[in-house]
Amino acid sequence: MSDASPLVLLIEDEPQMRRFLRAMLAARGYRLVEAETGGEGIAQATTRNPDLVLLDLGLPDMDGLEVTRRLREWSAVPIIVLSARGQEQDKIDALDGGADDYLTKPFSAGELLARLRVALRHAAHAARGAQAESAGFKVQDVEVDLARRVVLRAGEEVHLTPIEYKLLTTLIRHAGKVLTHRQLLGEVWGPAYAGQTHYLRVYMAQLRHKLERDPARPQILITEPGVGYRLKGG
Fold it and tell me: CB within 10 Å: which end of the chain, N or C, has fewer?
Protein backbone atom coordinates (compact mmCIF):
# COMPACT_ATOMS: atom_id res chain seq x y z
CA MET A 1 0.00 0.00 0.00
CA SER A 2 1.41 3.41 -0.94
CA ASP A 3 2.42 5.89 1.77
CA ALA A 4 0.61 8.48 -0.36
CA SER A 5 -2.76 6.93 0.51
CA PRO A 6 -4.69 8.71 3.29
CA LEU A 7 -3.90 7.71 6.86
CA VAL A 8 -7.01 7.19 9.00
CA LEU A 9 -6.88 7.15 12.80
CA LEU A 10 -9.66 4.97 14.24
CA ILE A 11 -10.48 5.63 17.92
CA GLU A 12 -12.91 2.85 18.83
CA ASP A 13 -13.01 0.42 21.76
CA GLU A 14 -15.38 -2.16 20.25
CA PRO A 15 -13.34 -5.02 18.66
CA GLN A 16 -16.07 -6.05 16.21
CA MET A 17 -16.43 -2.51 14.87
CA ARG A 18 -12.64 -2.18 14.55
CA ARG A 19 -12.46 -5.42 12.55
CA PHE A 20 -15.25 -4.26 10.24
CA LEU A 21 -13.66 -0.86 9.62
CA ARG A 22 -10.14 -2.32 9.30
CA ALA A 23 -11.22 -4.67 6.51
CA MET A 24 -13.34 -2.06 4.73
CA LEU A 25 -10.69 0.67 4.74
CA ALA A 26 -7.83 -1.65 3.77
CA ALA A 27 -9.86 -2.91 0.81
CA ARG A 28 -10.19 0.69 -0.43
CA GLY A 29 -6.49 1.47 -0.08
CA TYR A 30 -6.56 3.52 3.12
CA ARG A 31 -3.82 3.19 5.72
CA LEU A 32 -5.07 2.71 9.27
CA VAL A 33 -3.81 3.24 12.80
CA GLU A 34 -6.02 2.16 15.71
CA ALA A 35 -6.58 3.28 19.29
CA GLU A 36 -8.91 1.76 21.89
CA THR A 37 -9.06 4.73 24.28
CA GLY A 38 -9.31 8.49 24.00
CA GLY A 39 -5.90 9.01 25.58
CA GLU A 40 -4.25 6.58 23.18
CA GLY A 41 -6.05 8.22 20.27
CA ILE A 42 -4.81 11.69 21.20
CA ALA A 43 -1.27 10.33 21.50
CA GLN A 44 -1.52 8.63 18.10
CA ALA A 45 -2.86 11.82 16.52
CA THR A 46 0.13 13.71 17.91
CA THR A 47 2.75 11.26 16.65
CA ARG A 48 1.18 9.95 13.42
CA ASN A 49 -0.45 13.13 12.03
CA PRO A 50 -3.42 11.33 10.40
CA ASP A 51 -5.37 12.70 7.44
CA LEU A 52 -8.70 11.87 9.10
CA VAL A 53 -10.03 10.64 12.45
CA LEU A 54 -12.93 8.22 12.93
CA LEU A 55 -14.09 8.67 16.51
CA ASP A 56 -16.48 6.75 18.73
CA LEU A 57 -18.11 8.80 21.50
CA GLY A 58 -18.46 5.99 24.06
CA LEU A 59 -14.82 5.39 24.98
CA PRO A 60 -13.75 3.74 28.26
CA ASP A 61 -11.53 6.55 29.59
CA MET A 62 -13.18 9.76 28.33
CA ASP A 63 -16.09 10.93 26.24
CA GLY A 64 -15.44 11.36 22.53
CA LEU A 65 -16.52 15.00 22.82
CA GLU A 66 -13.55 15.58 25.12
CA VAL A 67 -11.26 13.90 22.58
CA THR A 68 -12.62 16.25 19.90
CA ARG A 69 -12.09 19.28 22.14
CA ARG A 70 -8.47 18.31 22.85
CA LEU A 71 -7.69 17.61 19.20
CA ARG A 72 -9.18 20.95 18.16
CA GLU A 73 -6.79 22.76 20.49
CA TRP A 74 -3.99 22.13 18.00
CA SER A 75 -5.29 20.29 14.92
CA ALA A 76 -7.76 20.88 12.09
CA VAL A 77 -7.77 17.19 11.06
CA PRO A 78 -11.22 16.10 9.81
CA ILE A 79 -13.13 14.21 12.51
CA ILE A 80 -16.06 11.93 11.68
CA VAL A 81 -17.98 10.76 14.74
CA LEU A 82 -19.32 7.19 14.69
CA SER A 83 -21.78 6.68 17.52
CA ALA A 84 -24.77 4.69 18.69
CA ARG A 85 -26.15 7.95 20.12
CA GLY A 86 -28.69 8.97 17.53
CA GLN A 87 -30.46 11.92 19.15
CA GLU A 88 -30.33 15.26 17.34
CA GLN A 89 -28.78 16.96 20.37
CA ASP A 90 -25.91 14.45 20.37
CA LYS A 91 -25.17 15.32 16.75
CA ILE A 92 -25.40 19.05 17.45
CA ASP A 93 -23.07 18.77 20.46
CA ALA A 94 -20.49 16.83 18.43
CA LEU A 95 -20.59 19.22 15.47
CA ASP A 96 -20.55 22.31 17.68
CA GLY A 97 -17.62 20.74 19.51
CA GLY A 98 -15.52 20.57 16.35
CA ALA A 99 -16.46 17.34 14.57
CA ASP A 100 -16.85 17.57 10.80
CA ASP A 101 -19.52 14.90 10.40
CA TYR A 102 -21.61 12.43 12.39
CA LEU A 103 -22.78 8.93 11.50
CA THR A 104 -25.18 6.97 13.68
CA LYS A 105 -24.48 3.25 14.14
CA PRO A 106 -25.36 1.04 12.40
CA PHE A 107 -24.30 2.55 9.07
CA SER A 108 -23.45 1.11 5.67
CA ALA A 109 -19.91 0.87 4.32
CA GLY A 110 -20.95 2.91 1.30
CA GLU A 111 -22.28 5.77 3.42
CA LEU A 112 -19.15 5.94 5.56
CA LEU A 113 -16.84 5.85 2.54
CA ALA A 114 -18.80 8.66 0.88
CA ARG A 115 -18.60 10.82 4.03
CA LEU A 116 -14.90 10.04 4.33
CA ARG A 117 -14.23 11.17 0.75
CA VAL A 118 -16.16 14.41 1.32
CA ALA A 119 -14.23 15.15 4.53
CA LEU A 120 -10.89 14.57 2.82
CA ARG A 121 -11.88 16.79 -0.12
CA HIS A 122 -12.94 19.52 2.29
CA ALA A 123 -9.62 19.26 4.14
CA ALA A 124 -7.68 19.50 0.88
CA HIS A 125 -9.72 22.55 -0.13
CA ALA A 126 -9.11 24.23 3.23
CA ALA A 127 -5.39 23.46 3.07
CA ARG A 128 -5.10 25.35 -0.20
CA GLY A 129 -6.17 28.42 1.76
CA ALA A 130 -5.87 31.71 -0.06
CA GLN A 131 -4.94 29.98 -3.31
CA ALA A 132 -8.25 28.13 -3.32
CA GLU A 133 -10.15 31.29 -2.44
CA SER A 134 -8.55 33.29 -5.24
CA ALA A 135 -9.61 30.58 -7.67
CA GLY A 136 -13.20 30.90 -6.51
CA PHE A 137 -15.81 28.22 -6.00
CA LYS A 138 -18.00 26.33 -8.45
CA VAL A 139 -20.76 23.79 -7.93
CA GLN A 140 -23.19 22.77 -10.68
CA ASP A 141 -24.01 26.01 -12.55
CA VAL A 142 -23.20 28.32 -9.63
CA GLU A 143 -19.84 30.14 -9.65
CA VAL A 144 -18.49 32.46 -6.96
CA ASP A 145 -15.51 34.74 -7.58
CA LEU A 146 -14.45 35.43 -4.00
CA ALA A 147 -11.83 38.02 -4.94
CA ARG A 148 -14.33 40.13 -6.93
CA ARG A 149 -17.36 39.22 -4.78
CA VAL A 150 -19.29 38.17 -7.89
CA VAL A 151 -21.85 35.34 -7.95
CA LEU A 152 -22.99 33.77 -11.23
CA ARG A 153 -25.71 31.25 -11.97
CA ALA A 154 -25.69 29.73 -15.45
CA GLY A 155 -23.36 32.55 -16.48
CA GLU A 156 -25.69 35.32 -15.30
CA GLU A 157 -24.73 37.57 -12.39
CA VAL A 158 -26.88 37.13 -9.28
CA HIS A 159 -27.36 40.00 -6.84
CA LEU A 160 -27.03 38.95 -3.20
CA THR A 161 -27.61 41.13 -0.16
CA PRO A 162 -24.63 41.51 2.21
CA ILE A 163 -26.10 38.96 4.64
CA GLU A 164 -26.88 36.47 1.85
CA TYR A 165 -23.32 36.80 0.54
CA LYS A 166 -21.82 36.36 4.02
CA LEU A 167 -23.96 33.26 4.60
CA LEU A 168 -22.93 31.81 1.24
CA THR A 169 -19.20 32.46 1.75
CA THR A 170 -19.37 30.96 5.25
CA LEU A 171 -20.80 27.79 3.73
CA ILE A 172 -18.15 27.88 0.97
CA ARG A 173 -15.33 27.97 3.53
CA HIS A 174 -16.73 24.74 4.95
CA ALA A 175 -18.01 23.18 1.71
CA GLY A 176 -19.05 19.57 2.21
CA LYS A 177 -19.20 19.94 5.99
CA VAL A 178 -22.35 20.10 8.10
CA LEU A 179 -22.58 23.43 9.94
CA THR A 180 -25.00 23.61 12.85
CA HIS A 181 -27.54 26.40 13.23
CA ARG A 182 -25.48 27.78 16.11
CA GLN A 183 -22.26 27.80 14.07
CA LEU A 184 -23.85 29.60 11.13
CA LEU A 185 -25.69 32.13 13.26
CA GLY A 186 -22.52 32.84 15.24
CA GLU A 187 -20.38 33.39 12.14
CA VAL A 188 -22.88 35.40 10.11
CA TRP A 189 -24.83 37.38 12.72
CA GLY A 190 -22.68 37.02 15.86
CA PRO A 191 -22.87 35.00 19.11
CA ALA A 192 -25.83 37.01 20.44
CA TYR A 193 -28.01 35.52 17.66
CA ALA A 194 -27.17 31.86 18.37
CA GLY A 195 -30.80 30.97 19.09
CA GLN A 196 -32.44 32.88 16.23
CA THR A 197 -32.90 29.93 13.86
CA HIS A 198 -35.73 31.70 12.00
CA TYR A 199 -33.11 34.10 10.58
CA LEU A 200 -31.39 31.15 8.95
CA ARG A 201 -34.61 29.73 7.51
CA VAL A 202 -35.50 33.07 5.90
CA TYR A 203 -32.08 33.74 4.38
CA MET A 204 -31.52 30.14 3.30
CA ALA A 205 -34.86 30.24 1.47
CA GLN A 206 -33.76 33.45 -0.27
CA LEU A 207 -30.41 31.94 -1.27
CA ARG A 208 -32.10 28.83 -2.63
CA HIS A 209 -34.52 30.95 -4.64
CA LYS A 210 -31.58 32.75 -6.26
CA LEU A 211 -29.15 29.83 -6.71
CA GLU A 212 -31.04 26.53 -6.95
CA ARG A 213 -32.60 25.29 -10.18
CA ASP A 214 -35.54 24.03 -8.12
CA PRO A 215 -35.62 25.74 -4.69
CA ALA A 216 -38.18 23.22 -3.44
CA ARG A 217 -35.72 20.37 -4.12
CA PRO A 218 -32.32 21.87 -3.29
CA GLN A 219 -29.23 20.15 -4.68
CA ILE A 220 -26.61 22.68 -3.52
CA LEU A 221 -27.77 24.10 -0.19
CA ILE A 222 -28.66 20.93 1.72
CA THR A 223 -30.69 20.78 4.94
CA GLU A 224 -29.49 18.43 7.68
CA PRO A 225 -32.80 18.05 9.57
CA GLY A 226 -32.70 19.32 13.13
CA VAL A 227 -28.96 20.03 12.90
CA GLY A 228 -28.06 22.65 10.29
CA TYR A 229 -27.02 23.04 6.66
CA ARG A 230 -24.34 21.80 4.28
CA LEU A 231 -23.11 23.25 1.01
CA LYS A 232 -22.46 20.57 -1.58
CA GLY A 233 -18.72 20.36 -2.20
CA GLY A 234 -17.37 21.90 -5.38
Answer: N
